[in-house]
Specification:
The protein is of the alpha/beta class. The chain has one domain: Rossmann fold, CATH 3.40.50. The structure holds adenosine-5'-triphosphate (ATP) and magnesium ion.
């Protein structure tokens, strides 16, 4: 489909908000009327649980069915479209993750399967927006996602110590762009759990901008409502659309999509 946009949410660092941001932006995009797919590539399955709740643990099919076939030609042939499950939310579907994905990783890496996700997405019809949530590592799944994506969104936790890691991350994205995916655009770095009234995080963002990093104007506040929305398996756009952080997600999506 000509106007399919694939956005990967990526940071090698754990716990910076990748799953939270991927699910909330996907939910908002669905609410705005886009046919939206979230592909959960993290064996931890946080995004799958966020969107499917209790049902997540028993879910089938899953992304594992898609990747299993690459390693075992006697396994049932599953295209990506066969691994899509509808969420309880209108316009929003998911390719669920299961812990088994972890077991496939090193084999997939050693068997040159890195373009399979990209090719599958190119053949997938019916979705205007695809979000990919990645594990906190630059392994097979994350690389596959970066190779398949048009845009890359980088959540950042405003931590002094992860600033160096941010430069390394940008270099890794550059390398993937140069070697595999000339179309890959870094759409921006988004500060998560940002404290606008504290001097240090504000100054750090300014410095990153001065140094040429594509830091977005939109920021996301820390809020217990986010944790509640995880517990209730309801992204903010559906749980509490007028909440401050829900409005921040609106502003973030506006900035990304104009
Ligand atoms: N803006 C926020 N306010 C409050 N809590 C948040 C916020 N963003 C994320 N969290 C919480 O921080 C934790 C980590 O968030 P999340 O799972 O989205 O990060 P992640 O980068 O996907 O982690 P991982 O690398 O393990 O996949 C979760 O418990 C989530 O509820
Ligand atoms: Mg996650």
């Amino acid at each position: 489909m000509a106007d399919q946009h694939v956005r990967v949410v990526f940071n090698q660092k754990g716990g910076v908000g990748k799953s939270t941001i991927a699910c909330n932006l996907a939910a908002l995009s669905a609410l705005r009327g886009h046919s939206t797919l979230l592909i959960d590539l993290d064996p931890q399955s946080n995004s799958t649980q966020y969107l499917m709740g209790e049902a997540a643990s028993a879910i089938s099919p899953s992304g594992a069915d898609f990747f299993r076939r690459m390693l075992d030609i006697t396994a049932p042939d599953r295209e990506l479209k066969d691994c899509i499950v509808k969420t309880p939310f209108k316009n929003l579907s998911v390719v669920p993750a299961v812990p088994e994905l972890e077991d496939f990783q090193s084999k997939l890496e050693s068997r040159y399967k890195i373009y399979k996700l990209r090719d599958a997405l190119r053949g997938l019809k019916g979705f205007d927006r695809v979000y990919i949530d990645t594990p906190p590592a630059l392994g097979y799944y994350t690389r596959s996602a970066l190779i398949a994506a048009d845009g890359c969104l980088i959540p950042w936790d405003c931590d002094t110590f992860s600033r160096q890691a941010l430069y390394l991350l940008m270099a890794n994205v550059d390398e993937i762009r140069n070697d595999h995916n000339a179309e890959l655009k870094v759409e921006g770095v988004v500060a998560n759990q940002f404290q606008p009234r504290a001097n240090l995080p504000r100054r750090m963002l300014e410095e990153l901008r001065e140094e040429g990093l594509p830091v977005l104007d939109a920021t996301l506040s820390a809020s217990v409502r986010i944790r509640e929305s995880h517990d209730l398996a309801k992204p903010l756009a559906f749980l509490d659309p007028r909440h401050k952080v829900a409005l921040e997600f609106e502003a973030l999506l506006d900035e990304l999509e104009g």
